[in-house]
Fold each of these.
Amino acid sequence: MNKEYLSCDIIEYGFDAQTDAINLCCRISGDSLGETFKLIPDYHGEKIDWNDFFEKKQKIRDIHKQGEIFKPCTGCLYLREESWDDEKCIKTVNINNWIKCNADCVYCNRSSLKNIKEYKIFPVFKDMIEKNLLKKGGPITISGGEPTVIREFDKLLNLFLKNNLTNIKVLTNAIKYNKTIERGLKNGNVNILVSTDSGTKETYKKIKRINKHYQVWKNIKKYAETSKYPELVKTKFIIIPGLNDNKNELFEFIKQNSINSIKYTELDLEISWFYSHREDKTNFEAIYELYQFARQKAQEASIILEAKDRMLLLLQDLNKD
Ligand code: SF4
Ligand code: SF4
């Protein structure tokens, strides 16, 4: 058995495609916010030299094997002690290289990237699968821009489904209903997360800058009805102070989940707000109160509400659970 050491699934088996690079990681949870390590800088869809890719990753693995922490990972909540195997493969995937979207969320940086040319990711995964480098288990996360408006998305998701890959998570705004997602939900290999960040149409419009509140909840419901398991369709509420940080909005959000038969939801905190307030913790107690309120309302409606990422860090900072 291998010796246990502190590492994470991304260090060991990750692949993170961004708009202009293949990064080590997209989970910004280490102490060094913004310091993303580029495994392949200046990347625009070229053929990947996998030996070189795994060599770079091995160097990071070795730092952890020696009991140290790779600097950008300092303080990350995803680090865990485990007896990691030595296999050179990819399991934890993040596809975040697309830009196009049919919404315009206030907290999203995609609109500032409009001049960047999107590259195709399908050939990269085809090559990865042909070389037997992509292993079952996931998570495979498909996100931005909005997958359902990207031309190669259906082809890519079909490739994953055809190869029987599991734990494929699609982050979609659900403005557009997608039949391939429906197929994946039906066979249980796909799960979706829809961040509405609101429960009323007014706040939805303020945050997403498009008037699609009713359409989105209708599509969420339709996805939930076709899904093999209820936990495959989740919603999310990102608290954005000044926009949706009030009990009424959270109450309406839980109500929408209840009306539309959604049993699982997540609560997070807007990333730039969190990090710009982390030092002095201004309003952290007020956010905690909202979290408790949402948790109580969710419980009353038999909905499982989970604190995620920044919300988890806030709870950690306040010594609460
Ligand atoms: S330890 Fe954290 S920051 Fe480092 S690769 Fe893993 S998830 Fe990313
Ligand atoms: S739906 Fe996603 S990609 Fe589109 S604007 Fe909102 S956060 Fe950005």
Amino acid sequence: MMQKLRTNSDWSASTPMLPAKGPRRLALYRALRGLIESGQMKPGDKLPTTRDIAGRFGISRGAAVAAYEMLVADGFAEARVGAGTYVAEAVPLLPLAPEPQVIEAREAQAPLPGALGCSTADETTLRIFRMLMNRHLTQPSARHFHYNDPAGSLALRVEVAAYLKAARGVACEPDQVIMTAGTQQGLDLAVRALLKPGDPVWIEDPCYAAARELFEGTGLCVTPVPVDGEGIDVSSGIAARPEAKAVYVTPSHQYPLGVTLSMARRLALIDWARGAGAYIIEDDYDSEFRFAGPPLSALQGIDGEGRVIYLGTFSKTLLPGFRFGYLVVPRALRERVLTIRRLTDRFPSTLAEDALTEFLRDGHFSAHIKRARKRVKAARDALVAALRSDRLTVTVPEQGLHLVAELDGAEDDCALVAQARAVGFGVKALSPLYAGPTDRRGLVIGFSGFEPEVLAQAARRFVAGL
Ligand SMILES: Cc1ncc(COP(=O)(O)O)c(C=O)c1O
């Protein structure tokens, strides 16, 4: 039953409705303030008790008390000791902030088979991680209880440096390694340490969208440089923008086309960088997944003059949710990068670092990569077999976790993406990854994170509708 309220002005006939969503105290504050500002509640009127008003609006007493405190704090009401709360004699003229928008929080949608960036971690890997994380939670190191090195733990950097020397030919010592929250943070740190808005940089064309967006968003002057069968065309870059201050490249496995930067181009790129005093930002995101023959060594190992900033990630090898990657920087840049890192997110998660250190040190990582490589190769083969269609030209990649199914230049790859998704195949269009108009059309398709048969079924459903 509606309660009888003790107020001087009768505003009960126009009792406002509170919006269904959002904090109750704010909603009541806004409703009462509206009554006061519109004159329906007059200066000197006594407000109902918080118990009365809470019952009337069906909210908690605490919310009503908080709303009254806000009215008093903003000068719309006065609390008189022992007598209650009254509308202020002089109501202030304050602009009311716009109604807060209640945005429905939505979980990211689960990726469909064929989506890029899905983890290769299997049950064995997860079980070992569970055990390592549990151990570090049960016997926590003193490190977790205070602030740490912005470069990441020395023990982990020792492991990463040893791995990079042995597996990728990267010439580095642990002091050059900086642990990051994935490649994306590494790129951001590199850009902020090396460049300023307006600086000219080269990117590959087509390019990894997250890198291009970062460069453009930071105000860099981006020159897209064409990629052909040998990787980035260094002479085109020199012809277009010889004075560029940096270049972003994916030499092991160009994203998205999948070509490997040839040795001649590697040497040409390093030569230009030395002459121009430019930096090469080398994103070596998926080189661990090589299915035939040895990989070419990283550019960083060929350079020898401190012109390369090398980026790697555990997103591809382990899982993106782990948010671990690394930068290898020339010594001259180390302090600059670390200062920026300290001022942004201070240092990496020490708990996760300790688990990862043991995972690397005890040989679990190399065993995991061997298992993952085998599974991913089986998924690649199943996908390739399922993609048989006159309309698709598939080059079987010898490396990485995705392939490109090329289409005729007259096809609409964006429309085909929608068609694929409708049958549960989560592919990406190639043409939007180019900086401008292109006659290249294709579908970029991932083959990690799903069982071969699940992936093949999704691909077959798509091909059947072509
Ligand atoms: C070219 C490229 N670099 C790096 C990454 C990994 O990014 P991160 O380490 O920030 O997860 C990806 C992921 O899709 C990628 O495609």
